[in-house]
Design brief:
Oligomer: single chain
Distance between the termini: 15 Å
CATH superfamily: Winged helix-like DNA-binding domain superfamily/Winged helix DNA-binding domain
Strand order of the largest sheet: 1-2
Number of strands: 2
Largest sheet: 2 strands, antiparallel
CATH topology: Arc Repressor Mutant, subunit A
Helix content: 40-55%
Number of domains: 1
CATH architecture: Orthogonal Bundle
CATH class: Mainly Alpha
Strand content: 5-15%
Order of helices and strands: HHHEEHHH
Length: about 150
């Protein structure tokens, strides 16, 4: 069985929350309960995730019976990196890319530059992908959801 690097639940759920808000952009506030139902994310988790997104001015809120949350700017102005850098505890594949002192082999490690190139590629993909891009995604078949398989 292959083990892949993965984003935390916080990063994945936060991105899905933002995609749901992008799908409703311009239609008024979306309630946490509706996001929870559509994305199958616990309400309590969504309530925690909305706080840093509001503090970063990516999300605004409206109170009242028809209240809820909405993007504070058009979905094409928010990229996935904006969201992930807020919600993920680490923004690097390996600790030595951010802090050379964590490993005594940093200066001579032949793999460290590869980690650096891989991180740059990931960041570039996340920065160049907007909420509009992913909110408009319509899978043609289930296999399209996976970026690669073992045969590639």
């Amino acid at each position: 069985m292959n083990k892949l690097m993965k984003l935390s639940t916080r990063g994945r759920y936060g991105t899905r929350l933002m995609v749901e808000l992008a799908r409703n952009y311009g239609k008024g506030p979306t309630s946490i309960a509706e996001i929870s139902r559509k994305q199958d994310i616990p309400i309590k988790y969504l309530e925690q995730l909305i706080i840093p997104l509001k503090k970063a001015d990516l999300v605004t809120s409206a109170r009242g019976p028809k209240g809820g949350h909405m993007l504070s700017m058009p979905p094409e102005k928010i990229n996935l990196w904006d969201i992930l850098v807020l919600l993920e505890s680490k923004s690097s594949l390996v600790d030595c890319l951010l802090d050379r002192s964590v490993c005594s082999h940093t200066a001579t490690c032949p793999v460290r530059p590869v980690w650096g190139r891989a991180l740059k590629a990931l960041v570039q993909i996340f920065r160049s992908t907007t909420l509009r891009d992913v909110s408009e995604f319509q899978p043609q078949f289930e296999g399209e959801l996976l970026p690669c398989n073992e045969d590639n």
